[in-house]
Design brief:
about 170 residues, alpha+beta, 5 helices, about 25% helix
Length: about 170
């Protein structure tokens, strides 16, 4: 279990080192003027449809932590085709849905601390009912893909946490 850490940014001791950060909505949602969102967007904790033509699912992009038993998780959104989202909805509450082949998607969350993460190719793997999908980046030389393939250290987790807990300090 991960405990607190002394933050190199603010000097304070934080009670816990967060092992998960996430986005509340896909990046496209944030580009829609707030007054238009109610009639253009359908957003809940797991799915988002914008203008009846952009379809998104929320999932977990997990990074193995080489010096810890727990993975670091980015809560991200991926775009899916209309057909893929329809299929996801059909099997949403079905036991055994994790045996479904992965769905192709595009990463639709701009993660800080990386070069642009928008539109990285993904495979969206359904998991047992009650668990968000596992988001697998297709292997590339993008730093996020490399981190998913090779893992990160607890020092890197702390670096991410410090930057996100103090967003004004993100370059």
């Amino acid at each position: 279990m991960v405990t607190g850490f002394q933050c190199s940014t603010c000097g304070q001791v934080h009670d816990q080192l967060p092992m998960e950060f996430g986005a509340a909505a896909p990046a496209l949602y944030d580009q829609i003027p707030e007054k238009e969102r109610e009639h253009r967007c359908d957003l809940n904790d797991d799915l988002c449809v914008i203008d009846e033509e952009h379809f998104f699912i929320r999932g977990c992009l997990e990074l193995p932590v080489v010096d810890n038993e727990e993975n670091f998780i980015w809560g991200v959104w991926c775009s899916l085709s209309r057909e893929s989202l329809k299929r996801c909805c059909e099997i949403w509450d079905q036991e055994g849905r994790e045996s479904e082949p992965p769905f192709f998607g595009w990463l639709s969350t701009a993660l800080p601390l990386y070069p642009s993460t928008l539109s990285l190719k993904t495979n969206v793997h359904t998991r047992p009912v009650g668990q968000r999908p596992f988001i697998e980046l297709q292997p590339t030389d993008h730093p996020l893909s490399v981190e998913q393939q090779t893992g990160i250290t607890m020092e890197r987790v702390q670096e991410i946490a410090e930057a996100l807990l103090h967003p004004r300090d993100i370059a």
